[in-house]
C-alpha cells in the first residue's frame, strides 16, 4: 500500500505541474497536430504525461529504501532497462520527429537489456515443440525481445481515447499484482502496485476530460514494464502458465490485427497511421454519431464514454488470467473468446451494421444543441 500511495501522490503532483506550466513550453509539450488521421481530440493538450508516470515511479522506488516496500536494487534495474524505451517515446513527444522505426529500436534495446540485466527470458510457452526451441538461449532471447518490444509498442497503439490505455493498464497491473502476491514474488508485486498508483495519479487528469495525454513516452514506459513483469512471472514461477500472457491480449491483438489489416487488406506500410483502429471506429461510429465537430464539449464526453467499450472487452482475458493463472485450458478458451469478440465487433462496426444494443443509451447522450436537432416536420392541413 505504501508504494501505491506514494506513486499516486507523486504522479498526481507531477502531472499537475505538467498541466499548470504546459503553456510555457507549448511548442514542445502540446499536441498541436489536431488534423492527423488518428487524432480524436479537438484542442491542444500536453502530451508529456508519461514524464509524470516515469518520475513518480522513480520517486516511489527511492522511497522504498526507507520503508523497505520493494527490493530497491532490482526495481531500479528494471527502471534502468525501461529508460531507452521511455526516452525514445518522450523524444517523439517533444520533437514530433522521431520515426516509428527509431522508437521500435529503442524498445528492442530496452527488451534486450531486460534479458541480460534482469534475466527476464521466456523459455517456455507451454507448447512442447516450441518450448524445445526456446531452451536454445539465442532463440529464447530473440523471442523475448520481440515479444516485449511488441507489447511496448502495443500500448502506444491503443492510447487513442481518454482513459483508454491508462485504465486498461491499471486493470492489467492489478491482475499482475494479484498473481505476484499469490506466488510470493515481492519484486513483481511491488512494481505492479507502484504502477497502479502512478497511473492512477495521472488518470485523474486524463479522464473524463483530458487535460494531459500519456504520450508516446508514457505508453512505451507502461507497456515495457507491463511486458517485463509478465515475463518475470512466467520465467520465475513454473506453476504460472505461460498462457497467463493473455492478460495483455487486447493491446497485443490490436497490434497484430492492425499489421494484418494494413499490410494484407489495404496494402499499406505497417507503420502508416490510420483511423481504422477499433477504438477509433467505436468513437466515430457509435460514440460521436450525430455530433457536430464544433460541439467540443459533447465530443469530449463521447470520447470518454467510448473507452468503456474497450475496458469491458479487455476484461474477457484479464479476469480469467487473474483467477485461472495456472490453468492453460481456461486461458486458451479465454483467448479464443476474446479474438472472436474483437473480430466480430470490428466487422459489424466497420460495415455500418452495429447492433442497436451496442449504441449508447439515452442518458449518456446529453441534450442535443439546437443546431444538431432535426427540423420539425411541417404541420399538415386537415
From TrEMBL:
Its cofactor is Mg(2+). InterPro entries: Glycosyl_transferase_4. The keyword Nucleotide-binding does not apply. One of its GO terms (biological process) is cell wall organization. Keywords: Cell membrane, Magnesium, Membrane, Metal-binding, Transferase, Transmembrane, Transmembrane helix. The keyword Cell membrane applies. Its main location: membrane. It is a multi-pass membrane protein. One of its GO terms (cellular component) is plasma membrane. It is found in: Cell membrane. GO terms for molecular function: metal ion binding; phosphotransferase activity, for other substituted phosphate groups. This is Glycosyl transferase family protein. It comes from Caballeronia ptereochthonis.
